[in-house]
Task: inverse folding
């Protein structure tokens, strides 16, 4: 058993009891034992030998304090000191005595209360006291008992040496647990030497002179005081001699290996790999193992990479990468070094199986059976494991000495790895610094005290115009300094070399004569030879100086702009609510004079918008520049002027101020208001075009303050304008407003211009001679062109008989242009809708032939695109043939061939498959096409026509005069027209093919019906003969047949009957088309009633329930429809299963037809059989199960198809079936 006891430092300071002593604990800071004595079982019994009170309490008080902190009960027996002296000594050294006494954790007794409880020394009474103390401490929850006893009582006359020895021997078995510790105190000055001698012999640990000592003279009491004491002491001394000799040899060997390792690691001539190999060799010899190794490890990635190995091994070779978990090093890699230790505690593996490595590759595959390793952390790099291994097992564990030596090797190795890492980092930093110096755009140089240039980087060489360092390094730097700055630089250089720091601006003149203005920041630099030189970072500030000069010039310009700007400019401190400056335009805006305004603050101009103003100010100062918002600015007379404020932060006289440019946006606000009204009118879905136009004209009159407005249309370029809509005019809309007088004024000029045309006062201008002015006295005018796509349509205009005082503003011109754009859009949309509607009407007109429709389509295209010629062309082998043509051309007509494909506009359409349009073919580079230079087609728009997916040709429009480009709406219309033409051609082709197919089908059906009729008719005669002879045979020879004969005869008769039924059914099936009645209105309710009556007996026998809703009136053949209902109802009754049949007949209108259904709850039909049931003679059941010919449903399908309908079944086996069929409604026939 062992305890942690007071420790001792080199300076012999007060021992510190840090807790119970454990043999596994050690530290370089402790002086004293680090392990238990071999054979000493009573290490909790300690002896303190002191010479004075200070030395006594310097050891005892920490002993007691440590016990209190551990929750132990501390018992002190005072004899050499009084109780009060003991307590005072504890208080002086920081023990909370009162609290410890009150809690029972501390008690101080006199020797009479312990050793002389019965009035004289009684060893049994004394032991009883300690037993009670131990029992009470355990009962009260203390973790243990710690006793400190002064032993001076043993000097009294009633106590002798033997009693003391007996007492000491009895204490050993009493304190044999980890929770008990006793410290016996002996005053060396008072005890005889022989007693102190015996104390030294019988205590394994001694505290003396503030030092904890491992007692090498220790002898167990039972041996020391036994009868063979002298013999045992001789044996022990002989053993001690041997032990000391072994220890000295061990120390010698340890020093040898340590010295060898030190010599290896301190040898500066060896490379790291050589040092590592030497370490491996020493380690293998020291530990008796085969190989030494160094590996990189990373537990997170399970990395184990061999970095070096001392010998040959099949698996452990440099560069080998293994799973860390498959190696012994995994235990080391997970361990951390102890505090104040460089490497982790070495880990040994001497029995891999017991250590849990029986399945690991290191044992199972590599056959490594002994291992000693430690983890070596490396800052800034992967950790390493430093290990030694052997294939032969090791019988004994590694000694603590070997483990310590291994750790020492690891520490040296870590130092070397860290040094190499630092050298690598230093090289990298040096390279980085050199690169930084060389790549920095500033000049870095060193200059000697005499002005010699010692070093300069590339940027500096470039600044002085040097091609290489040899051009200037070694020469005088003063030669590069401008003459007027040379003396100042010389003085500056001398001050720097004397130890000062400083900054200097000067000019240099480079080798190429270039002059630069430089700014140098310099400091002294002491070189290894002791010389102090001037090191400086010098930047070229030529541009900066020029910028500063430009800044001064800009400031002057700013002041000029500030004073002369038409925009109001305010400089203020919004956070101090102070106006700092204002320009004349600002004074004019707010109506104050300068003194009045500077006495106000910015808040005075925004009294109703302070929250928004504060937010604006915060945004300006957070953003720093370019912050814009709209606020109202209060003028002197109280008017709030809407204003746009653009502000930024400026520095003026070391103050951050806000410079605000304020612009009156009243006109813009008004413009926006009118724009909103314009949008409201045009976006109103409830208003038609005419209503919107009238409101727009009224809005414009109000916006421009003009009395009249109108929309004029120019039907033809050479014709006259007509008024489509007018406001404020006393003019009949059906009359011409005016004819074009040819003066290029008013609407005539407007329709030829892309921009709005305006005149504030036509008097004294050429417009005064215009007929419009002379007749209508329109003195002021504003108009804009209106177009339908790219075709000019007319003008939107406003006018007045009074002149305007002010010219029309850009905002007014922009507003009428916006109005014109909307009117143009609406007109184009209206015309586009009309054109599309016309296309649909043409294609939907069944009274027109295909040729008539194509002619009408070409006519519509010419009108919509405003082009005189329209053509449908058919692509031939070498050219396009004109199949249809609208309009006239002197050289082109229907049936003629256009120029070859290679010289034809239409080829571009066919090649691309897209519509192609060009307003001016010559400008577009088409002038080499024959259609251009032979037929003079200057304008062209065409799209491809496809028929049944194949290219047919083109539909195209052209003119001999160029025009503006085609709009997207016009191109869309052209594509749609091409689709309509293609549809008509496809329809014509389909009709022709359909007619041919119908003729063929009619001929085929007639032949089939004739064959079926003939076959069924011709079969009737032999069938009747067979039936007659069978009947005759039955009448004459019935008595001659036995039972088999009668059965055979019955089969023959039945077969003949079924044959007759099949022939009759086939005959009826073949006559559906040829023998049916003409279609006429048929009441299906009446038809169903007739069928019910015909099936009355069958219905009653089956107890069937046939329900029906109200059935419609249709066009059809009543007898055939009756046959359909009869067949379906008979099937519903026949296939009802075991339950009485439940049948429901219903009808539902679906567009132009009726859907009839017959639903039953019978046996149902399998999904895979639902198509078979409509096949002639195809039956799903045997005749023994259900009778029938297999023609009923096939006949129903034939009848329904004759009526233009379809028939089908929906069924689930066991759930019944629903037969549905469609018939055309009466009004559709």
Result:
């Amino acid at each position: 058993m062992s305890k942690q006891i007071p420790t001792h430092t080199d300076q012999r300071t007060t021992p510190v009891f840090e807790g119970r002593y454990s043999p596994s604990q050690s530290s370089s800071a402790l002086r004293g034992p680090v392990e238990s004595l071999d054979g000493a079982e009573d290490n909790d019994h300690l002896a303190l030998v002191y010479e004075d009170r200070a030395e006594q309490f310097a050891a005892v008080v920490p002993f007691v304090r440590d016990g209190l902190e551990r929750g132990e009960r501390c018992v002190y027996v005072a004899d050499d000191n009084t109780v009060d002296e003991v307590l005072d000594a504890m208080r002086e050294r920081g023990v909370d005595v009162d609290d410890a006494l009150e809690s029972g954790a501390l008690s101080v007794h006199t020797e009479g209360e312990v050793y002389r409880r019965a009035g004289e020394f009684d060893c049994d009474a004394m032991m009883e006291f300690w037993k009670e103390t131990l029992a009470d401490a355990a009962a009260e929850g203390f973790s243990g008992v710690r006793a400190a006893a002064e032993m001076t009582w043993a000097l009294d006359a009633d106590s002798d040496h033997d009693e003391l020895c007996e007492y000491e021997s009895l204490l050993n078995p009493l304190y044999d647990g980890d929770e008990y510790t006793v410290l016996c105190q002996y005053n060396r000055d008072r005890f005889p030497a022989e007693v102190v001698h015996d104390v030294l012999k019988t205590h394994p640990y001694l505290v003396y002179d503030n030092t904890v000592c491992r007692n090498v003279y220790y002898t167990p009491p039972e041996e020391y005081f036994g009868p063979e004491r002298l013999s045992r002491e001789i044996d022990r001394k002989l053993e001690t001699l041997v032990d000391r000799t072994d220890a000295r040899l061990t120390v010698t060997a340890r020093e040898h290996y340590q010295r060898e390792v030190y010599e290896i690691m301190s040898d500066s001539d060896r490379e790291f790999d050589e040092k590592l190999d030497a370490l491996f060799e020493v380690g293998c010899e020291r530990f008796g193992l085969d190989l030494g190794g160094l590996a990189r490890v990373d537990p997170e990635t399970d990395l184990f990479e061999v970095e070096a190995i001392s010998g040959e091994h099949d698996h452990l070779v440099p560069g080998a990468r293994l799973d860390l978990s498959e190696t012994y090093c995994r235990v080391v890699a997970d361990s951390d070094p102890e505090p104040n230790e460089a490497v982790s505690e070495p880990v040994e593996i001497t029995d891999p199986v017991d250590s849990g490595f029986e399945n690991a590759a290191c044992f199972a595959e590599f056959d490594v059976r002994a291992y000693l390793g430690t983890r070596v952390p490396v800052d800034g790099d992967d950790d390493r494991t430093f290990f030694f291994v052997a294939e032969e097992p090791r019988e004994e564990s590694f000694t603590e000495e070997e483990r310590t030596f291994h750790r020492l090797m690891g520490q040296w190795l870590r130092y070397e790895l860290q040094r190499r890492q630092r050298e690598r980092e230093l090289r990298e930093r040096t390279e980085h610094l050199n690169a930084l110096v060389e790549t920095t755009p500033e000049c870095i140089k060193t200059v000697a005290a005499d002005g010699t240039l010692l070093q300069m980087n590339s940027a500096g060489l470039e600044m002085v115009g040097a091609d290489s360092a040899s051009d200037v390094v070694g020469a005088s730097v003063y030669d590069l300094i401008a003459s007027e700055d040379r003396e100042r630089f010389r003085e500056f250089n001398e001050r720097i070399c004397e130890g000062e720091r400083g900054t200097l601006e000067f000019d240099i003149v480079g080798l190429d004569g270039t002059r630069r203005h430089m700014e140098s920041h310099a400091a002294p630099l002491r070189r290894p030879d002791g010389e102090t030189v001037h090191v400086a970072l010098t930047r070229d500030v030529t541009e900066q100086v020029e910028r500063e000069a430009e800044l001064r010039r800009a400031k002057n310009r700013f002041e000029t702009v500030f004073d002369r700007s038409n925009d109001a400019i305010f400089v203020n401190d919004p956070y101090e609510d102070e106006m700092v400056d204002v320009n004349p335009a600002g004074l004019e805006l707010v109506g104050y004079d300068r003194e009045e305004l500077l006495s106000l603050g910015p808040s005075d101009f925004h009294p109703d918008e302070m929250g928004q103003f504060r937010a604006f100010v915060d945004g300006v100062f957070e953003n720093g520049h370019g912050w814009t918002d709209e606020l109202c600015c209060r003028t002197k007379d109280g008017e709030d002027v809407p204003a746009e404020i653009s502000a930024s932060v400026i520095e003026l006289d070391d103050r951050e101020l806000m410079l605000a440019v304020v612009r009156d946006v009243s006109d813009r606000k008004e413009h926006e208001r009118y724009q909103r009204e314009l949008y409201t009118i045009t976006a109103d879905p409830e208003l038609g075009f005419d209503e919107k136009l009238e409101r727009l004209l009224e809005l414009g009159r109000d916006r421009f303050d003009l009395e009249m407005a109108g929309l004029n249309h120019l039907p033809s370029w050479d014709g006259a304008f007509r008024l489509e809509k007018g406001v404020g005019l006393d003019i009949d809309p059906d009359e011409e407003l005016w004819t074009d007088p040819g003066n290029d004024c008013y609407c005539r000029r407007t329709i030829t211009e892309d921009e709005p045309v305006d005149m504030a006062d036509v008097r004294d201008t050429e417009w005064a001679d215009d007929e419009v002015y002379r007749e209508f006295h329109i003195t002021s005018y504003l108009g804009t062109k209106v177009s339908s796509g790219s075709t000019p349509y007319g003008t939107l205009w406003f006018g007045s008989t009074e002149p305007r005082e002010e010219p029309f503003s850009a905002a007014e011109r922009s507003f009428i242009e916006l109005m014109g754009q909307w009117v143009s859009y609406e007109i184009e949309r209206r015309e586009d809708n009309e054109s599309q509607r016309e296309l649909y009407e043409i294609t939907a007109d069944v009274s027109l032939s295909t040729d008539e429709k194509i002619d009408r389509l070409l006519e519509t295209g010419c009108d919509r695109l405003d082009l005189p010629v329209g053509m449908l062309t058919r692509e031939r082998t070498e050219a396009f043939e004109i199949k249809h043509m609208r309009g006239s051309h002197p050289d082109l007509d229907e049936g003629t061939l256009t120029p070859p494909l290679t010289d034809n506009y239409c080829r571009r359409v066919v090649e691309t498959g897209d519509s192609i349009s060009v307003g001016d073919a010559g400008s577009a580079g088409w002038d080499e096409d024959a259609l251009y230079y032979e037929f003079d087609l200057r304008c062209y728009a065409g799209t491809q026509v496809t028929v049944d997916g194949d290219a047919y040709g083109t539909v195209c429009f052209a003119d001999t005069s160029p025009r503006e480009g085609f709009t997207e709406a016009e191109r869309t219309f052209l594509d749609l027209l091409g689709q309509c033409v293609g549809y008509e051609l496809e329809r014509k082709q389909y009709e022709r093919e359909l007619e041919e197919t119908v003729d063929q089908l009619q001929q085929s059906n007639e032949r089939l019906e004739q064959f079926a009729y003939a076959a069924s008719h011709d079969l009737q005669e032999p069938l009747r003969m067979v039936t007659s002879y069978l009947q005759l045979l039955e009448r004459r020879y019935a008595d001659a047949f036995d039972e088999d004969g009668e059965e055979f005869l019955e089969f023959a008769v039945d077969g003949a009957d079924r044959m007759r039924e099949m022939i009759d059914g086939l005959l009826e099936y073949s006559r559906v088309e040829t023998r049916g009645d003409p279609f006429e209105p048929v009441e299906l309710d009446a038809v169903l009633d007739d069928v019910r009556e015909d099936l009355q007996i069958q219905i009653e026998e089956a107890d069937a329930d046939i329900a029906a809703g109200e059935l419609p009136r249709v066009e059809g053949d009543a007898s055939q429809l009756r046959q359909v209902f009869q067949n379906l109802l008979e099937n519903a009754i026949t296939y009802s299963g075991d339950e009485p049949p439940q049948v429901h007949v219903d009808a539902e209108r679906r567009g132009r037809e009726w859907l009839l259904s017959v639903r039953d709850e019978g046996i149902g039909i399998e999904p895979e059989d639902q198509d078979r049931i409509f096949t002639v003679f195809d039956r799903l059941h045997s005749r023994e199960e259900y009778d029938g010919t297999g023609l009923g449903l096939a006949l129903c399908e034939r009848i329904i198809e004759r009526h233009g309908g379809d028939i089908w079944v929906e069924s689930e086996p066991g759930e019944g079936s629903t037969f549905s069929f469609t018939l055309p409604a009466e009004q559709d026939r």
Remarks:
- The first strand starts at residue 45 and ends at 50.
- Confidence is low (pLDDT under 50) at residues 1-42, 738-742.
